[in-house]
């Protein structure tokens, strides 16, 4: 097994040999980066077994990789869900056959994965989802709709939670399935966003047939798996990609203030230091969460702390950016040489309080599972799902 110092140098050599993109990397550039990283024995597969396409190293090596790549331009933003959520879920709950089939391409970036939980009428209350999975011989037949699915239009596969037994209470009778996003029976409609992008999607399933063995984990454990996956998501969003202290929002504000000539304004400087302090605190929380994962533990509700704080920081960053640049922080000319990247980032920050679970849900999780406060009354406790008036069942 690689010595950690030797491995660190291997990571540095790899990152130093990669071309530096101008601005944010394209999707093709990200895919090429992950393919090269996998071939070099670094990247997303560092802690996963070699038989499933990984490097067969330890979580300590993975921490080194994360620390090194922090010092270089981000190349993997569109793979946060694929590598931060779907990959560990496949490793934790997939059969050996599923791992051999899907993990090598997932790790190398040859395939992109998405996750499908939210539905109309089942956003914050995901357990009220109505997408159905019915067993028909050797196939599962999926019918229903998902919404706000990140990068569904670019994904080859996805993990989907569907209801296979409506006679059980709403948190039971759910299972998780592997879906082919390009199969007949899948319709994907991109959602146009305020900044001109289409990052999220509506996804419709009409008699989508998948193999019986594409069930992930055991039958009727969908809520347990969804909860575990959401914890991975909140770590991926809230803990960032690295293992050390990083302050990306502060760095961006510093660049904005320097370019606009407001860097010497004492009010702006004070506000920027608030963000600096907040991001430092968030990074320390992330380091604690990563340490728990390094010890082999599935991330717990503490991941909601980092995710919520990241949203608070994004809101604060947007307010300061407006003061630094005025209306030009949310609008740009067609001849902008940077393509409005700073403004697009500011507008995109509105999603931070929704994606991965709303701020309100994070506060409920923290209050319930971290602070031990009393839970809200549940009027649907013990009631079979088919008897509930939720979504289109009303």
Describe the structure.
The protein is α+β, with helices and mostly antiparallel strands. Helix content is 42%, strand content 13%. A 4-stranded mixed β-sheet has the order 1-4-5-8. A 4-stranded antiparallel β-sheet has the order 2-3-7-6, with no helix packed on it. Helix 4 (80-93) packs antiparallel against helix 6. The longest helix is centred in the last third of the chain and has 29 residues, at 266-294.
Helices and strands, in order, run as HHHHHEEEEEEEEHHHHHH
Helix content: 40-55%
Q: How many angstroms separate the termini?
A: 58 Å
Total beta strands: 8
Low-confidence parts, pLDDT < 50 over ≥5 residues?
none
Based on the model shown, name its key terms.
11 helices; single chain; 394 residues; alpha+beta
């Amino acid at each position: 097994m690689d010595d950690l110092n030797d491995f660190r140098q291997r990571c540095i050599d790899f990152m130093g040999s990669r071309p530096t993109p101008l601005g944010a990397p394209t999707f093709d550039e990200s895919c090429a980066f992950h393919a090269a990283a996998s071939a070099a024995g670094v990247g997303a597969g560092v802690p996963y077994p070699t038989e499933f396409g990984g490097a067969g190293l330890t979580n300590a090596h993975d921490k080194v990789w994360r620390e090194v790549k922090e010092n270089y331009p981000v190349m993997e933003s569109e793979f946060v869900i694929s590598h931060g959520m779907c990959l560990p879920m496949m490793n934790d709950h997939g059969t050996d056959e599923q791992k051999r089939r899907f993990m090598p391409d997932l790790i190398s970036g040859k395939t992109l994965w998405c996750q499908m939980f939210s539905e109309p009428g089942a956003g914050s209350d995901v357990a009220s989802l109505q997408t159905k999975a019915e067993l028909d011989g050797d196939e599962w037949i999926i019918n229903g709709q998902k919404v706000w699915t990140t990068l569904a239009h670019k994904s080859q596969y996805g993990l989907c939670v569907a209801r296979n037994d409506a006679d059980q209470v709403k948190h039971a009778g759910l299972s998780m399935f592997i879906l082919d996003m390009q199969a007949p029976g899948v319709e994907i409609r991109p959602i146009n966003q305020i900044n001109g992008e289409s990052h999220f999607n509506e996804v419709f399933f009409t008699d989508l047939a998948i193999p019986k063995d594409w069930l992930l984990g055991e039958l009727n454990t969908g809520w347990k798996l969804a909860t575990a996956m959401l914890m991975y998501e909140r770590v991926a969003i809230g803990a960032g990609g690295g293992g050390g202290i990083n302050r990306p929002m502060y760095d961006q504000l510093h660049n904005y203030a320097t370019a606009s000539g407001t860097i010497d304004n004492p009010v702006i400087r004070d506000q920027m230091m608030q963000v600096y302090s907040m991001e430092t605190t968030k990074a320390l929380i992330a380091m604690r969460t990563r340490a728990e994962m390094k010890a082999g533990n599935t991330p717990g509700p503490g991941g909601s702390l980092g995710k919520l704080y990241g949203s608070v920081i994004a809101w604060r960053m947007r307010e300061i950016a407006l003061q630094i640049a005025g209306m030009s922080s949310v609008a740009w000319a067609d001849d902008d040489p940077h393509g409005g990247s700073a403004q697009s980032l500011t507008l995109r920050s509105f999603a931070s309080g929704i994606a991965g679970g709303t701020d309100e849900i994070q506060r409920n999780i923290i209050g319930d599972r971290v602070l031990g406060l009393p839970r809200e009354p549940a009027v649907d406790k013990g009631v079979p799902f088919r008897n509930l008036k939720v979504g289109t069942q009303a």
